[in-house]
Design a protein that fits this description.
This protein has helices at 2-9, 12-34, 67-102, 106-119, 123-133, 138-164, 168-175, 180-188, 193-216, 227-233, 243-270, 272-275. The protein is mainly alpha-helical.
């Protein structure tokens, strides 16, 4: 663990990203305690500019609601969407990739053709179609993002398992009479965790961006406060009240940047090919 943190800390950008991400997570966790304002309640006149009222430092939106309260409460929902949709995508992509990589032949061909079918359709377009088929509710938004995000996971895991399948410890387990499921779960998959963790950190950022894009088009849950909802609700006032889109946009930029920097740090700390020079 000490070696991991020492390698991670060598990347200053990754440390900065971890600090930024920690601030966002604290806002999400402590949001209800940091502001007493209900993000849906009208508290002032509409379109109050930022820094004109000490009680409302970020102003109000088109309905007179507190922008700061919306920003803090939206952090929780945006991170929740990114995290849950990523976990759901991993739950689909990891088993598919693991089985395809470990069992060459028709299982590999069948699963990879199934994966390629999803990859032939642009992710954003597929998410729009899925949400038009379902309803723009939070759980359907998470499901749609997960369904368009799992193919890269499957291909990554397949490639890693395929390379590990030919290693000596796998052949030794087969000679000892161990079941293939036991070998795959207990011996192969632990060696694939590092690239999965790195990819997952980047997928959370992509999911947040995708939800924001869907919200801008009015395809996200209108009853849940998120950064994407804030941008989507302010799209009709881009000229008269530009800050309503700018403020949540900056929050998304910093969060996505933080997640990407953390992903780079994890790659430096967990990638064995990069770490060979440290020995």
């Amino acid at each position: 663990m000490n070696t991991f943190w020492s390698r991670y800390a060598r990347n200053r950008g990754a440390v900065i990203g971890l600090v930024l991400l920690g601030v966002v997570v604290l806002l999400a966790v402590l949001g209800p305690f940091l502001t007493a304002q209900d993000p849906w309640r009208m508290v002032q006149r509409p379109f109050l500019p930022p820094f004109q009222d000490s009680a409302l430092p970020l102003g109000t939106d088109a309905l007179g609601r507190d922008v700061l309260s919306q920003l803090i409460h939206g952090a929780r929902v945006s991170l929740l969407i990114g995290l849950v949709s990523t976990l759901a995508a991993l739950a689909i992509g990891v088993p598919v990739g693991a089985v395809a990589g470990y069992f060459p032949g028709w299982p590999d061909d069948l699963l990879m053709r199934f994966t390629e079918f999803f990859q032939t359709i642009p992710s954003f377009a597929l998410a729009i179609v899925l949400l038009m088929i379902f309803q723009p509710q939070l759980h359907f938004v998470v499901l749609s993002i997960a369904l368009v995000s799992w193919p890269p996971v499957a291909r990554l895991v397949r490639g890693e398992v395929l390379s590990l399948r030919r290693r000596e410890f796998v052949e030794a387990g087969i000679v000892q009479g161990l079941r293939h499921r036991h070998i795959l779960i207990h011996h192969v998959m632990p060696n694939v965790l590092a690239p999965i963790i790195i990819l997952a950190s980047l997928m959370v950022a992509t999911a947040i961006l995708l939800e924001s894009s869907l919200s801008f088009l009015g395809l996200s849950d209108p009853n849940v406060m998120s950064w994407g909802y804030m941008i989507g609700a302010a799209r009709t006032a881009l000229r008269t009240a530009w800050w309503l889109s700018f403020i949540p946009g900056i929050a998304i930029v910093f969060t996505v940047l933080a997640l990407n920097l953390v992903g780079e740090g994890l790659n430096d700390a967990l990638n064995p090919k990069l770490n060979r020079g440290d020995a």
